[in-house]
Amino acid sequence: MVSGRVQGVFFRDTVRRRAESAGVAGWVRNTPDGAVEAVFEGDPASVDQMVELCRRGPSRAEVTGFEVVDEEPEGLSGFEIR
């Protein structure tokens, strides 16, 4: 979960493009409270890169809150914006 100025700044599209490039599966979506939620599965080093991307956000974003929760993999394939 990422909060701050994270909607309307190409956050989801940036995450999708980077995930596809890194071979990371999962999804990203806006939440009704103005945050962005993302799920990543794949090579641990690639997932860590995605987590760091979300921690910083794209250039127009202002991340003020960040939370990571480790979960069991679901066997996702591909990456989508929900």
Explained architecture:
The longest helix has 13 residues, at 44-56. The strands form 2 sheets. A 3-stranded mixed sheet has the order 3-2-5, with helices on one face. A two-stranded antiparallel ribbon has the order 1-4. The protein is built from 2 helices and 5 strands; from the N terminus they run βαββαββ. It is globular and about 30 Å long. It has helices at residues 11-22, 44-56, and strands at 2-5, 25-30, 36-41, 62-66, 79-81. Helix content is 30%, strand content 29%. By secondary structure, it is α+β, with helices and mostly antiparallel strands. A hairpin with a 5-residue loop joins strand 2 and strand 3.
Strands, helices and their partners?
Elements: E1 2-5, H1 11-22, E2 25-30, E3 36-41, H2 44-56, E4 62-66, E5 79-81
Helix pairs in contact: 1-2
Runs in which pLDDT lies below 50 for 5 or more consecutive residues are none
Q: Which value, in Å, is the CA radius of gyration?
A: 12 Å
Structural class: alpha+beta
State the end-to-end CA separation.
14 Å
**So what's the overall shape?**
globular
| Largest sheet data | 3 strands, mixed
Helix content: 25-40%
Share in β-strands: 25-35%
Count up the helices: 2
The count of DSSP E runs of length 2 or more, i.e. the number of strands, is: 5
The strand line-up of the biggest sheet is: 3-2-5
Order of helices and strands: EHEEHEE
Average of per-residue pLDDT values: 97
